[in-house]
Every structure is written in C-alpha cells, then in structure tokens.
Amino acid sequence: MTHADMILETRGLTREFNGFTAVNGIDLRVRRGTIHALIGPNGAGKTTCFNLLTKFLTPTSGQIFFDGREITRAAPAAIARQGVVRSFQISAVFPHLTPVDNVTIALQRPLGVSYRFWKSSAMVKRLRERALELLGDVGLAAYADVKTVELSYGHKRALEIATTLAMDPVLMLLDEPTQGMGHEDVDRVTALIDKVSKGRTILMVEHNMKMVSSISDTITVLQRGEILAEGDYAAVSANPQVKEAYMGTEDASLAH
C-alpha cells in the first residue's frame, strides 16, 4: 500500500491531560475511498482521537497528514475548506428553520457567500433545488418544509448527514452516527452512510457492532489510548485480545 492511497494518516499521535495519556502514539492510516471505523470499549480514547483528527484538540505530540499534507496545526476552518468535514460542525442546525433552509445555509458556506446572496433570486432557486436533491438523497424529501425541531431523532441525524454532504466533503468524519437510535433508525442510517460513501472516504467513531460489521472496510480497535487491533470485521472479531477487551463492557458481544 502506498502513501498515495492514504487520505488521512497520523504518526505517533499523542494527547495527555494533566499527566494522563488519553491517546498514546497512534499511527492511524485511512485508505482513500473506504469506510473506516474507530471502535473500542469506554475510555479507550476514541473520542479524544476523533477530536484530535477534527482539530477540536491539539496533540501533545505527533503529526496528522491529510492527502499528503501536514495539518497538525491547521485550524478546523482551514481543513474544512480542504474537504475534511465533521458531521456536527454544521449540524448545529437551526431548529426553527426547515430542513430545506438548513441545507441551503450549509450549501452557501463553501461558496463563501454571506446572507447577501438571498437577494439574488436565481441563486436562491439554484441552491434550494440542490438542497431538495440532498434531502431526497437522505430520505427527507417529504419533510423538506417541516420545522426541524419537529423531526424525529432519526430524521434529525439524517438531516445532519445532508448538511454535511452540502459541504461536499472529501473525507467525512462521523461521531457516533447511530447513538441513541432504535433498530429501524440504525438500519436506515447505516444504509444512508453506505450510500453517501460512494466517491468519498468516511471515518466514524461508532459503538454499534452490527452497523460497523455491515459497512466498514477497515476497523481500528483502540484500548487505553493505543491501537489494539486493525483489519476487516472478520479479522478483528476473531482476535482474542479484542474479545477480551470487550468482555465486561456494554459491547460484550462482538457478534450481535
């Protein structure tokens, strides 16, 4: 595998908090065009690692590379412009606007247009059409003009994905996309992530094993801030150390 295949790479990524090492020397390699899941028992360092990759935290040491360029010290806005988009960066959706308005606002951000663009009716029409298309892609066409606050939890998560897609990400970072969902919503969001992964790379932190096993190309298992195992689901779930790490946690069964 060449470096060119890697869209995201970390070398010796480390983060300490008051003497506690939450992430310890992680070398993560995310291959272009794949769905890569970051899993691990509670306290494994998944969230810290994710926050380092999305620039919400600065590493104590180590480096991060996106598409071969070092982004260790880059600001979140700078990496968003390069195409690295974290789902909730824009899913701070406006609850009292409709889904179509929320997606339209997200669409105009990469264009660098301010609210002045609302004065151009042709531009508004074009953006609204694209917003409706994206809502169609995530199964929300029928809810385009409902107030966002009135959407079900699963539909709100689908809207987050639509607003993320509006930024046209090359690398899409999803933080626990199925958290708090019932089976039906989990299945719907899993299918949705699989669908939107075409032509882009997805890195997600996720706890739902069924979801991870069904769509991930590569799974990295963290334990105590270090990589315990990595590979496809078959390899990872057969790993005795992984089985042991999951015993006694809420995710005791890797095969459910």
From TrEMBL:
What's the superkingdom here?
Answer: Bacteria
Keyword Nucleotide-binding recorded: yes
User: What cellular component GO annotations does this protein have?
Assistant: plasma membrane
Keywords assigned = ATP-binding, Cell inner membrane, Cell membrane, Membrane, Nucleotide-binding, Transport
Record-annotated ABC transporter domain positions: 8-249
Q: Which SMART domains match?
A: AAA (SM00382)
Q: Which GO terms describe its molecular function?
A: ATP binding; ATP hydrolysis activity
The record's PANTHER family line, in alphabetical order, gives: ABC TRANSPORTER ATP-BINDING PROTEIN, CONSERVED COMPONENT OF ABC TRANSPORTER FOR NATURAL AMINO ACIDS-RELATED
Query: What is this protein called in UniProt?
Result: ABC transporter-like protein
Q: Which organism is it from?
A: Caballeronia humi
- Organism lineage: Bacteria, Pseudomonadati, Pseudomonadota, Betaproteobacteria, Burkholderiales
